[in-house]
Amino acid sequence: DAKTTQPPSMDCAEGRAANLPCNHSTISGNEYVYWYRQIHSQGPQYIIHGLKNNETNEMASLIITEDRKSSTLILPHATLRDTAVYYCIVTSSGGSYIPTFGRGTSLIVHP
Amino acid sequence: EAQVTQNPRYLITVTGKKLTVTCSQNMNHEYMSWYRQDPGLGLRQIYYSMNVEVTDKGDVPEGYKVSRKEKRNFPLILESPSPNQTSLYFCASRRDVGRVPSPLHFGNGTRLTVT
User: Fold this and answer.
1) Is the dihedral of CA A103, A96, B21, B23 positive or negative?
2) Fewer beta carbons under 10 A from the terminal one: N or C of chain B?
3) Buried (b) or exposed (e) across B51-65, using 16+ Cβ within 10 A?
């Protein structure tokens, strides 16, 4: 699986959009971009995933660049409860499937 | 409710005393795995299983054993725990069908302390 690079920390004001970047320059054609978040020491929670098109669900939007070498997770109206560590993962289906979580981005949403 | 259940949530034990952390999922998922999380090191995979009776090593398997006798259960066994296995452990599962890798579902974690 391709490795990812994320900033170690970010902060955002409550009610504003939080834009979390992720670089995955070695991504291959059959690999998907997944985002998870971990609130405090709870189990990571799935947020969204995509291959090459932008995606949106009730939690967030995922913007993938045309060359697929980077992506951005957007939380449109961040709340205090969005304070968490966000992990960007690139992975394919089948095989050994050992997703590498790395250290993620610690997002702090402040009042 | 679809979930991954780990037990116990907290466990304090002594060096060398065998222990088992249980993991059960009610979603009929084929794939299950165990992770450990340590400060500054992120989540590292210990073992995974693609289906019943099929298990394989992850990145940090030393000192651990697993078994997959039933689809829903994937226990993590520490035959002789040592203090360096003090960590936060997570079990996860996912479906394993189709070309699109399905999302992982995680349990709430087991905080293990080995003295």
Assistant:
1) positive
2) N
3) eeeebeebebbeebe
Residue B101 has its nearest CB partner, among A87, A93, A103, at A93
Contact A89, A101 (CB under 8 A): yes
For each successive 10 residues of chain B (115 residues), what is the average pLDDT?
94 97 96 93 90 92 97 97 97 80 92 98
Reported as a single tens digit per residue, the pLDDT across A43-54 is 999 999 999 989
Output the DSSP codes for B33-102: EEEEEETTTEEEEEEEEEETTEEEE-S--TT-EE--SSSSB--EEESS--GGG-EEEEEEEE---SSSPP
Give yes or no for a contact between B61 and B32, defined as CB atoms under 8 angstroms apart.
no
Asked if A45 lies within 8 A of B106 by C-beta distance, the reply is: yes
Q: Rounded to whole angstroms, how far apart are CA atoms A107 and A16?
A: 13
| Residue pLDDT, tens place only, A9-42 | 999 999 999 999 999 999 988 889 999 999 988 9
